[in-house]
Structures
1.
Amino acid sequence: MKVELENLSKRWGNVVGADSINLDIQDGEFVAFLGPSGCGKTTTLLMVAGIYKPTEGFIRFDGRIVNHVAPKDRNVGMVFQSYALYPHMTVFQNISYPLKIKKVPKDEMKKQAQRVADMMGIGHLMDRKPAQLSGGQQQRVALGRALVKEPALLLFDEPLSNLDARLRLSMRGEIKRLQMELGITSIYVTHDQVEAMTMADRIAVMKDGRMQAYATPDELYDQPRTLFVAGFVGNPPMNFLDVEVVREDGEYHARCEGFDVVVPPHRGEKIVGKGKVILGIRPEDITIADQGIAGEIFVVEPLGRDDLIDVRLGEAGVHVLADPTLGLKMGQTVTLDFNTHKVQFFDPQTEKSLLWTD
Amino acid sequence: MATTILRQTQDTAFEPERGYGVRRVLGRSIPYVLLIISILPIVIGYAWVIIATFSYRTRGLLPIDANGNIGGFTLQNWTFVRDPEIWRVTLNTFGIAVGMVVGVGFVSSLAGYALSRMNFAGRKGFLGLTLILHAFRPEMLLIAIFHVLLFIGGIPLIGKWFGFNTVGGVALVMVSLDLPLGIWLMKGFFDNITWDMERSALIDGASRFRVWWEIILPQIKPGIAALAIFNFISGWNAFLVPYTFTLGAKVSNLPVYLNRFSEDTAMVSWNRVAAVGLFSLLPVMIFFIFTQEALLNIYSGGAKGGV
């Protein structure tokens, strides 16, 4: 099912939940709403589900405006962060509840619930109560209940937040596989950028009720449209430096105290003469080299595969991913090479990208 | 080396128990002794009631016969059970108690849900007013209620059941006096259930009424049971309202009946009063035995986080 949100807003008095959200979701697409707590992603999701009535704007399912359609008539399935299993019902009763309401005949109901439960790997737990299940099993029951009525749209509200790290990883893969196999259009709300990046076809990044960007994971990563997106997407986060870009001897230099790099012309020419700008560069695009900009190591944080080191360059500092075998120590002086083909530039006032604005 | 250290610490750890065994026992029993002493007057009171109901007379806790000798057990205090009037009165009492349970339970579980979950004009004011209403003593309202009951009595059909000097009327007044507290309690129970539960059921296709009945109510069963028990007991023990708004044994209830016993102009037989009192206590005790499990049975939910 195709979903379109047009100018969608939700306000409670002066409190803005969501502010003019515009986006479209193709049939079978997996879209993530990504943003910090209170950014309006769950509000938007609940409007799509029909729980909240939009203050303004339209929600269209396959071109049909559904603003005033009750949740039960929208044919959506939803998985909640708290799972929201009915504690007084068994797993079977939980999963088959949507079918019971639809008045599906008993035999048919049993067959369908069993099929979904088997698919989720909980077919043997049908007689248990939710309290007798582990977190991962409860999650599967919730997913099964959302899937059993074969919805045209699946909504996920931070479904993995309550699981431990390992389980989260495996459930992430399972949900993605399931979504692809069933081909159900899905919206996935999360504050975890890794979840969004790994699972979604497209990501809507939100902040303070507004949509900051709506793009594929790669595009978000390589061409962030705003300072917020650049800082939010990617782990460890992007480094930001206040610089000025000047042209000298036919080369573009990005400079601040203790820092001076040459920027490729196709990026530099857009920035030159704009005064103070913010330069962004990801930790993995900075390498420790024999030559380059010198700085002192402030902290070394071992991450296992890499060491995350904080290097002081005059007033500023950058995070760099380094090979642990180098054996870097605090207080040591290193020289850094910046891959300037990957640098980003942002306007400090508007916080918009100076490279990717259309 | 390590094992010796472990053994040493163990030895020292157990030392005091061996050395000061008597003091330990004494120390442990002091709280019990204090507790027993403090509840003794109440226990003695109940013991007296039970003994007195089967005695001709009592001296202290000892039953005595007409000549003042120990003994003299008798069933004569219980002869009132052969009087059909007591059964009619018991039935009335039961009617008031059940009316309280059903009336308060039904109205406050609906009103509590609406106040907890729905947004409507005047919601805040209503909540505040409910709380203020609870602060009113029934005594202050007696005259006003009397007029209301007289008015209801004038309405055809309804008046016959809920007017002045009817069991229904007493139950109605009792229900309305207890509703503010009931509504507040129920609202509290509903507030404790996650919104997700409701949203989930709505998306699953349930109507609002069905969500209330099938999803939310079963989860606050212990709360409903508690409310029911309190209402049953307060309905069963109701005195002021039935005493004021009923005339004669036909519509009387047990506490009023008991009161009439002790204000007879003839000499009061306290042993008979005790017997009627014990009689009126039994159903409440039986009711409590059957419902206490529901009170203690607290659900462990299937929801994580944000509960």
Note: The CA atoms of residues 49 and 274 of chain B lie 6 Å apart.
2.
Amino acid sequence: MTVMRALVVAVALLAVALPAHAQISDGVIKIGVMNDQSGTYADLAGPGSVVAAKMAIEDFGAAKKNMKVEVLVADHQNKPDVGSSIARQWFDADHVDVIVDVPTSSVVLAVNQVAREKNKALIVSTGATSDLTGPQCSPNAIHWTYDTWSLANGTGSAVVKTGGDTWFFLTADYKFGHDLERDTEAVVVKNGGKVVGKVRHPFPTSDFSSFLLQAQASKAKVIGLANAGADTTNAIKQGAEFGIVKGGQQFAGLLVFLTDVHALGLEKAQGLLLTESFYWDLNDKTRAFSTRFAERHHQAKPTMAQAGVYSSVLHYLKAVEALKSDDGPKVIAKMKELPTDDPVFGKGMVRADGRKIHPMYLFEVKKPSESKGAWDYYKVRATIPAEQAFRPIDQGNCPLVKK
Amino acid sequence: MTIFGVPTQALFGQLLIGLINGAFYAMLSLGLSVIFGLLNIINFAHGAQYMLGAFVAYFALSWAGLGYWPSLLIAPIVVGAFGMVIERTMLKRLYQLDHLYGLLLTFGVALVVQGVFRNEFGSSGLPYAAPPQLTGGYNLGFMFLPTYRGWVVVVSLVVCLGTWYVIERTKLGSYLRAATENPALVQAFGINVPRMITLTYGFGVALAGLAGVLAAPIYQVNPLMGADLIIVVFAVVVIGGLGSIMGSIITGFGLGVIEGFTKVFYPEASNTVIFVIMAVVLLVRPSGLFGRTA
Amino acid sequence: MTGPIDRIETVPSRNARRGGVGGEASSPPTSIGKAARISVPPHQLAAFAVMVVVLIVAPFLVYPVFLMKALCFALFACAFNLLIGYVGLLSFGHAAFLGSAGYASAYTAKVWGLPPELAIVFGTAVACALGVIIGALTIRSRGIYFANITLAFAQMIFFFSVQAKFTGGEDGIQAVPRGTMLGVFDLRQNYTIYFVVLAIFLLGFLVIYRTIHSPFGQVLKAIRENEPRATSLGFQPEHYKLIAFVISATLSGTAGATKAIVFQLASLTDVHWTMSGEVVLMTLLGGMGTVFGPVVGAFLMISLEHYLAQLGSWLTIVQGGIFIVCVLTFRRGVVGELGRLLRKPL
């Protein structure tokens, strides 16, 4: 026993002696993929985003061009303090040049601060907050893939236009949920719809029966889910139990990913309306990309988040190549200068406020009978052209935009 | 007709929902209460064991094709056995120490179990369907009651009252209660006390496993389903009074109802109301509502 | 004699002969009545010197921000240890003090523009006030009830933190300025702020040390060993326990307030109940009731978190494993075992 105890002490003391130490690197482009590797958002981004980043580096042909590119990965556990710690460490000690992905809006904002302070680059592909191109916009950051405004706009206006003009909101009681509810309510009202009720549930919640009952009692045509992840899937699952859809109401998911629908199954998710900027089955190019991705990622097709990582890393490398430097704000400026083109989003561009522009799509989840197999879940209900999909540049209160 | 601005029909619906949730709280706190009341062990692993019950049901379906009904029996047995292994190998050594060490040990067990499952299965949750005999529901006028939820209340009531009866009113139960008061004396009468303790712990854990199976069709089967639930269940047991079985049953159902009402009038606070109640109760009655003093 | 493991207050134990949690205060017993001059044992002085030297040299070898995180948690753990190791009360809600002080300090630094030293003092004061209120309400409870009621209050504070506008919800209070301390030290330099944090840690550490090694500490020890007898000698245990609780809360607040300035962020993580669980683990691993144990435990846990951060849930699994191993075979913790090997309490 004493031997074992001595051993434990020795190992413990050794562990103290080996914490973080500075690594010097030069001549290498270091890309840090920071996301949730094992929690609620692990499936929609997680290790898949790392796969996407590596695919982008290969497709860019870094090896042939004699550019050394390294990928680092970290799990921020959806906590802003962990994210900002990792960002600090990466920028200070590990000489990371750019951080990509970053789901969870609170972490985005924290990392944004650090990137600004350390004069490095940040390209957010999964986090949603439209504040990143609004009051918090920075010359060091670009917001890829989607944001809360474009989701609210897409789902909100498109749903109202197809007849869903009375809404009841089921909102997660935290800032992200409130923002999503606020943005969507504005769009609904602007398009002539009416919000007949709302309820705020604690974040996170596992039992929605009480709130669904209130939604049912409101008799609204559309129940807007201003939440994400497990909250959304639980609400939908239990909604099926309480016969919400059978009773004639429709769910509108304000932030839903392909992997959420996969976890729910079509039986429960059918009829759900949602907005995304990418779907693997949109056209030949997306199909080709997705098949290659699936081969490297347990046969799972990419979500828009993972596709966004691919697209953003590709464009970043192009900008670095053109500039011959990996200086943070300079590369960001170059990325805004060069038009974007990739098999994922097609042609697009990055605005002065850091917003990447491309079309968004309103999807409806297929019925089980309409689906030909795994991952064949969506049908396109509407396409929102790029110019209309995102908040107009002058409405964001971004200090970088000259009035 | 409205009460505080909410139509009575809606209120009855919330009341019923509250009872259904209360059924889960009651069953889980029953297991905890049995374990603490009879064994003086604070089983922080209860939430993880509840999760294990749900996963066993999931595995039974996906690996062996066994549906819900067999799982109702298999899951508690498997989880109970796992609990007995923990008791035999680890908890046994802590009986002569302060029982807060038991809390720390079971807390560690919970972390390990949840971590292992999270590593394997992520935390998105796996689907598990209710058996066809229990799908659908009844339109009660003031709300639509899914059959499955009604079933949960029935099972929970039966199990809770059955356990209470066995422990408080039968000979076996009296042996158990005697053994915890004075193990040496009871052992002297020829009853194998250590084995009884192990079986009792296994039974309490099996109750958690059963709750897990019942929960699987309602919530997603996910590795963290017990993590935040455990502190709520603890609060229920403490409010009811540690060691009082009827106390935790009543408090469990009561809490479900109170939470239900909170969800109508101040929904954001529904996760926290239990703690407010616990603080108030402990200040007024330090041993809980039905707890035994000294 | 049960050696370094003593009894702690519990709900009426069924079996009167239970050993308990906690350790022995390390100075030799002196009679309580005398105005005792309690000298610092030489081996503890040596250990302290070693600690200070290591911490002064460390930032030049190891990333200073990492070290500062460890120092803040070390102070938190030391403060927590005062309560569990020397009074014998397991609080499951200490995160409330860490986090609230963090929010107060962050808010005053960012919105009111207070210089960092005042922000930290303000945060500490908030934690102290909370400690007085919660302590007064909970100090009569013991054992599992005490753990639960402290948890209940911590959950209420968590709920308040989520709801209140000024805390920023899940975003937290971000972009907190580091500022200039006392008008002279620019805290944006990693080395400067490191030594400031080290100074704060050492100050807190010495306050705790002095609390333990004093007549007050002796009374605490008496209460822990035999409360009825201490009462019969004329002491009022509730008062002593409350004061210890408030000191513990206050210094936890100092740790939290400092942490908010260093990381320029105050978030919900610091008021969540799992943070309360982490500090228990740190203290247990390092050695409950030892002087240096919590420091070692904090450094070990922070290093572990750093190492295992990439491996997803492995951190949780390892933490759980450490709990289990420590409770079963390693109850004295690293420093406790070290102390036993050297036959001198550390």
Note: Chain B has a mean pLDDT of 87.
3.
Amino acid sequence: MQSILVKSVVALTGLAAAFGAILAYASRIFVVHKDPRVELILEALPGANCGACGFAGCHGFAEAVVKGTASAETFCPPGGNATMARVAEILGKEAAQLVPMVALVHCAGGLSNSAQRLSYDGIEDCRAAVLVGGSPKSCVFGCLGLGTCAAVCPFGAIAVDAEGLVHVDPKRCTGCGKCVDACPVRIIELVPKDMRVHVKCSSHDKGPVAKKVCTVACIACQLCVKKCPHGAIRMDDNLAIIDYSKCTNCGICAAVCPTSAITDEVKVRPKALIGSKCEGKGRCKEVCPAKAIEGEPGKRHEVIRDKCIGCGLCLDACPTRAITMVGALGPQKERE
Amino acid sequence: MDFGQLLAIVIGCIFVSNYVLMRYLGLCPFVGVSKDLDSALGMGMAVIFVMTMASLATWLVYTYILVPMGLVYLRTIAFILVIAALVQFVEMVLEKTSPVLHRSLGIYLPLITTNCAVLGVAVVNVDEFMVAGIPRNASFIYTVVNGFSAGVGFTLALILMAAIRERIQLDAIPKPMQGIPITFILAALMALAFLGFTGLKIA
């Protein structure tokens, strides 16, 4: 009895000790000298392995950055500037700063706005739907609403509503651009995150055609092009395109657009208020795109609050600096 | 040693008594790592490698330590020890000698430590080939071949499963059945299909 006990304990302990010794010795022989910075950077990265940086996953990115083989443009779009600052700190370098981007779907033609051309009953995938008979919508440029972009989004930032429209949650969207590549009708674009005024249409149809198939289409009337005080809008083959490097989010284009194809996401805009310094020179009246300022020359002018769209043009035009912007957040001397 | 016997072992492990579909061992990776073909192939290769090595190592431990000391009833715990140490060792060697292979197999190796199919192969080896009447060198070769072909059988089942799962990815599966439930049904149907090999005899 006792001998069995001793034997089994000795055998197993001996076996375990032998393996332990082998492993301990092997860990010395087969030690791999790794750059600890790779692990540190890997921890700083979001870890979604989305590939937006151009490398095969976060590990590839971390290794390339440490080795210095990564080019100057190497950037982690999901992590953004904060992550890149961490990475730069680990490497002891200056961080590159980029404007955070967010995905934007250039279509607002849901089921109630845009007619269906045919009833599609196949695989729930936009790419498959486009292959069989083109877009099921009458507007061939529009969003199909089958959610291919939502399926490829690694961050769960895209949702399709009952209208068949795609919504991007700007809080979750990291601007990795996977949806941009996945969309077969190419209506998703990466835009600067702080931009609030967008053309929600991709139709290159002529005005009457576009209007026939969708109530919120860009009909190429060019009103926005004419009214934009910064020259930021141009027409490209019957479609208004906003140049985001010039756009100031003033919202004039959205206010004048007859079909609401241009949307203004600023919830509450401040209103202009003319103070007692006004000498009635009327410069504000001339520049106001909404015709919201009234008054006789030489007398203090007044703003019709319901008409004011809060674009702030009068602010810059006033020679006596009598105008302030008053908004939901209180008086605001200068609009940002 | 008999080549007919070897062929019977190979065919038996891959088809007739496939470790996953007929013996129901190693179901965790079978369901978990069969989402896409690439990782299924990686896992399969890692399992083939570890099963072959584990068969070899457990044969040595069993024949030269457990049998002489009369401790064959401790084989389960001894084999677990051997397999865990072996996988750890293999991971170290791979990381040093072949970083590329380590990158592709590395994440699966720790999974295999706790894979019951590997232990199952070792135990089956003992029951079938390390019995009286089989000479030592023949039992050694049978054991290693059995381990290798068990891995091949596992890989075959895994790849078949991954291929089917990739094909049904876009199918209209009812929501409650999506994911694991439909995979279980698939596994059951595959096991039924493999039942057709029962009775296959290598003369």
Note: Chain B touches chain A at residues 61, 65-66, 69-71, 74, 77-78, 81-82, 85, 88-89, 92-93, 95-97, 99, 170, 172 (CB under 8 Å).
4.
Amino acid sequence: MTGMAGRDLSLYRRRRATDRAMTAVMAGAALVAVVPLFLILFFLLREGLPALNLDLIREAPNRPGRPGGGVHNAIVGSGIMVGLALAIGVPIAVGCGVFLSEYGQNRLGMVIRFLVEVLAGIPSITVGLFIYGLIVLPQKEFTAFAGAVALAIILLPIVARITEEMVLLVPRSLREASLALGAPHWVMVVKVVLPTAVPGIITGIVLAMSRIAGEAAPLLFTALGNQFDSTNLFHAMDALPLRIFVYAVGPYDYWHQQAWAMSLILVGIILTVSLVVRALFGTRVTIRQ
Amino acid sequence: MAITLARSARTRALRNRLRPGDWVFNVLVTAAAIVVILTIAGLFYELIQRAWPAITKFGFGFIWNTTWDPPKQVFGAGAFVVGTLVTAAVALVAATAIGVLVALFLVEVAPPPVSRPVSYFVELLAAIPSVVYGLWGVFVLGPFIRDSLGPVMVDYLGWIPFFDGTPLITGLFSAMVILSIMILPTVMAVSRDVIGAVPRSQREGVLALGATRWEMIRMSVLPYARSGILGAAILGLARAVGETLAVTLVIGNRVAIPHTIFDPAYTMASVIANQFTEVENDMHRAALMEVALLLLGITFLINVAARLLVWRVTKGQRAVVFE
């Protein structure tokens, strides 16, 4: 009898030890998982802060090899192309999200819901080549417009999905009240449902915006990049991630420093947006590059 | 009576006046939705069309032939396919192992004051742009691998096949590490959601029989969440396969089948990023288009598989997750 009890006890001890060991492994994994973020942020600050100055924001790049100058062209270009991408993509994406929530309970809806998810997972570099074939080749010129269209395609599934989610969250009673007052379906959607869902949709747009602001792959073969200041939509245009890429592989030390500074600006903007959105809307939404 | 009639007549007239609105609205939002179908169809059509000269010239051999010679106009994507699959597979294994452990920690072990910030910090990794990972990889991770980690690995693990070689700033291993970090948030977040969706009754049943927490995880949580976790891993795989700029910056860009994990190599996405703006001839461009088509096809299939798995597990209750 005592032998049995002893074996049971040792078995229990072993099971408890395994349990504790695995708990430690899980906690260790969590520690390992958060380390890279802080390593990246640490080096962004250490390398980027010293290179931050007003010239970086105000001036266009110097002739390659001459230290100094800035990346005004890239900042302006990013602003223009992201803005244009929003102007092109958001109406379509919101329309698509409304379709999914209002008319999407059939086979077409299922197909489109599925394709929206698939589109979200397609490599952005292939989107760049698609727009290269569709717009750049026929026009025989790399243009900011083509870059904006490529970014709009990246944005489309993100905003479409969040719009559907947010519209579905609108309480039934609001819809019914509106219909009971005699409003046609579309008036209900435009005047009652969408305004109610607007904070959530705007959150989605802001998140999508910070996502496309960091994208370089779709711009490589569409907007190309441009070392001069340009606001012409039908010429090549620069963008922050493109310039970071060029400077990171380039030979000059001051390029590397400016690449760090640009990365710090970009990540600073993205993380600030993320924090603000999280503070305002809780944990339901996150940015994914 | 008369009033009711008048009112109903008025509402009918009003409704008739507004009904075209419903029709127009339906058409408009349906058109917006159709744009999604057109975009995906256009992607495939455009890439097939531009790649056609290479497709007809090199046939299926394009996928495994390893000669990539722009001046002689002989192209095969074999080296890039190998580079992509090797880096993505290693990143997948590393990120899934850590990601699932973190997800279990968040759902089963940690109290909210711990799990909330940890969850948030890991998810923030997903918000950092690819090119910033690349910059960090070239100037921080690369030198660390060349000077510290790499030599130690070669000394102690060099007897394992593929672990010898000369660690450099760029190479396969750098790309594997960067990719693991980059897909970790995807795997972690989706695993966390599917593990969170395991019904309480599953856990309580095993606990009632006297199981420890780890036994409960092993016997009820993991089996229940298995296909969802598989879906999470496949979603991560799709991201790793399509990842462009970070990999382009750290993989070393050499057209050859790598022999050790420290060799410089190429992936499909990085060869496109590097060579497309400097094509030497039309066949070169068509070949790069075919590489893109291959990449698109692979990620498309991976995504379809992953979505089906995740959908089946969460039964359509999707969390708000952005890739």
Note: Chain B has a mean pLDDT of 89.
